[in-house]
Amino acid sequence: MATIIDGKKISTEIKDELKEQVKILKEKNIEVCLCVIQVGADPASTIYVNNKKKACEYVGIKSLSYELGEDTSQDELLELINKLNKQNDVHGILVQLPLPKHIDEDKIIDAISPNKDVDGFHPQSVGRLSIGKKGFVSCTPAGIVQLLKRYNISMEGKECVVVGRSNIVGKPMAMLMLRENATVTVCHSRTKNLSEVTRRADILIVAIGKPKFITNEHVKEGAVVIDVGMHRNENKKLCGDVDYDEVIDKVSAITPVPGGVGPMTIAMLMYNCVESALM
Ligand code: NAP
C-alpha cells in the first residue's frame, strides 16, 4: 500500500511550530510582518493573496496588503518597494505574480531587498542556494524537502529526477536535492526518451504544468512521486501532472492533488517570514 503524503497535515504542523516562534518574537517586541502587493485584480491572484493573508492570521504574522490598480506604473511599484525595503518593521515583501504586461517582472524582483525576499526569487537568493549558502529558498521546492524529511524519506544517494526546469520550481528543486546529496537529473520539454529517464527515479518530482501527463510507463516500481502540478479538469475537479489513479499501485509514496504540495508552499512562505524576522 502506498503512503499518501499528507501535505495538509505537515503544513499545519509547520504553521503550529511557527506560531510558537512568532509568540516568542512578540515577547521580544518583534512583530513579524509580511507585505503583500497585488497589482490588478486577476481572480486567481486574489485567491492566492487571500490564502496568504489567512495563513498570516493563523500563525500570528501581521500582514500588510497593497491592492494596486491595473494601471499602476512600474515606477510607482518600484517606489513602493523601495519604501518598504527601508522599513525596519517589514520583514518580508511579496509581489504577487503575474504582473500586468507593462511591468517588467525581473526589474520588480531585482528591486526587492534580498533580506526581505521571502519568495526566494531574487537573483541573490538563487545564487546563494546554488553555492550552498544560507538564504531564502523558493517556497514550493522548500516545502517538498520538508515533506520528504518529515516522512523520513531520505534523499541521500537516491536517484532523483525532476521534470520541469522553471525558475520557481524545477531549478531550485534540483539544487535542494543536490544539497541533500541526491543524484539529480533534470528533464524538460527537449528531453529525449523521457519515460526511460523518469523510470530511473527513486524520487520523481513532477512540475510540468500538464494534467495527468505522468503515467505508469514513467514510474519505477516502488518510487516516491511528488506531484507539483495543479489543474482543474472538465468537471472542475483538481488534478495534478501525475495520473494518480494509474500510478497509485506502483509507487511507495505519493502526494495527492489537492492536499499534497499545495499547502506546503504557503507554510514555507510563513517560515521564510519568521526566518527574516530572526535575522
Ligand atoms: P512552467 O514554468 O510552465 O515550467 C514547466 C516546465 O515543464 C518547463 O521547464 C518545461 O520545459 C517542462 N515541460 C513542459 N512540457 C514538457 C514535456 N512534455 N516533457 C518534459 N518537460 C516538459 O511551470 P511551473 O511554474 O514550474 O509549474 C508547473 C506546475 O506546477 C503547474 O501546474 C503549476 O500550476 C504548478 N505549481 C504549483 C505550485 C504549488 O504550490 N502547488 C507552485 C508552483 C507551480 P521547457 O523549459 O523546455 O519549456
Can you give a write-up of this model?
- A hairpin with a 5-residue loop joins strand 9 and strand 10 (238-239).
- Strands 1-11-8-7-5-6 form a 6-stranded parallel sheet. Strands 3-2-4 form a 3-stranded parallel sheet, sandwiched between helices. The chain has a two-stranded antiparallel ribbon with strand order 9-10.
- The termini are far apart.
- Helix 1 (7-27) runs parallel beside helix 10 (262-278) and helix 6 packs across helix 7 (170-179).
- It is built from 10 helices and 11 strands.
- The protein folds into 2 domains: 28-113, Rossmann fold (3-Layer(aba) Sandwich), CATH 3.40.50.10860; 139-262, NAD(P)-binding Rossmann-like Domain (Rossmann fold), CATH 3.40.50.
- By secondary structure, it is α/β, with parallel strands linked by helices.
- It is 41% helix and 16% strand.
- The model has no long low-confidence stretch (mean pLDDT 97).
- NADP nicotinamide-adenine-dinucleotide phosphate is lined by residues 140, 163-166, 168-170, 187-191, 194, 207-210, 228-230, 261-262, 265.
Short description:
The chain is built from 10 helices and 11 strands.
List keywords for this structure.
3-stranded parallel beta sheet; 6-stranded parallel beta sheet; 2 domains; Rossmann fold
Produce the secondary structure layout.
Elements: E1 3-4, H1 7-27, E2 33-39, H2 43-59, E3 62-68, H3 74-86, E4 92-95, H4 105-111, H5 123-130, H6 139-150, E5 159-163, H7 170-179, E6 183-187, H8 194-198, E7 203-206, E8 224-227, E9 231-232, E10 238-239, H9 244-247, E11 253-254, H10 262-278
Parallel strand pairs: 1-11, 2-3, 2-4, 5-6, 5-7, 7-8, 8-11
Antiparallel strand pairs: 9-10
Helix pairs in contact: 1-10, 2-10, 6-7, 6-10
Residues 140, 163-166, 168-170, 187-191, 194, 207-210, 228-230, 261-262, 265 line the site of NADP nicotinamide-adenine-dinucleotide phosphate.
